[in-house]
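Lab intake sheet, docking and co-folding queue.

SAMPLE TYPE: protein with bound small molecule
LIGAND NAME: pyridoxal-5'-phosphate
LIGAND FORMAT: SMILES
REQUESTED OUTPUT: full 3D complex as structure tokens
PRIORITY: normal
SUBMITTED BY: R.K., bench team

The fields below were copied directly from the construct record.
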Amino acid sequence: MTEATLIQNWKATCNRIETAALRYGRDAKSVRLLAISKGQPAEALRQIAQSGQREFGENYLQEALAKIAALTNLELTWHFTGQIQGNKTRPIAEHFHWAHTVDRERIALRLNEQRPAGATPLNICIQVRLEDEPGKGGIEPEHVHALAARIIEMPKLKLRGLMCIPPPRDSFDEQRELFARLKSLHDDLRARGFDIDTLSMGMSGDLDAAIAAGATLVRVGTAIFGERV
Ligand SMILES: *Cc1c(COP(=O)(O)O)cnc(C)c1O
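RESULT FIELD (auto-filled):
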């Protein structure tokens, strides 16, 4: 993809987010774009970073660490959005600013233990599995509160909110209904006194429905970078 096309796609995505926010009565600034750059070369990230994109999400550690090293001078914010394996928490704790897919206490404990002394706390989203999908990551909704209560006791983690990757749905209304479930879990935690501010939901195909339901961070890959090969 040429640099011009990439930047055009990125701007179109920013506009799409803003348009959806306004349509659903949201403040446009209340929805951030997380560019999901798995499989993309560091150069592509640099190009949109120079246009103003600050936050990037990566799913594969080795690939991510190389890009983080190549782009340190840009002072980007790095989010880990892949599945977290129990034995691979250290590089996440050491090199990322956010982890979006925390779904069990053991992973949270390791991240807390491995976060370097002196670093700002690692921002955490709990991944919630909204539907019963075998093999998919995420904690069941009924266990979210207990995990949240554990995470807020860990000094090197900062619980920021909830994340989901729901199964695809045919219609906007069905997508929105799923996202609304995550929003209501989020509101429930806030009502119980948890100081959280993030709903990480919505991807290229369903970000409008996610924004309608209250997303504060949408994770977009294909609409910016094109189909992954
Ligand atoms: C790949 C990925 C995305 C981006 O998906 P697109 O459909 O390409 O926008 C978002 N979130 C997660 C967790 C992903 O793995």
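REVIEWER NOTE: The beta strands are 32-36, 55-58, 77-80, 98-102, 122-127, 157-163, 198-200, 217-220.
SIGN-OFF: pending second check by T.M.
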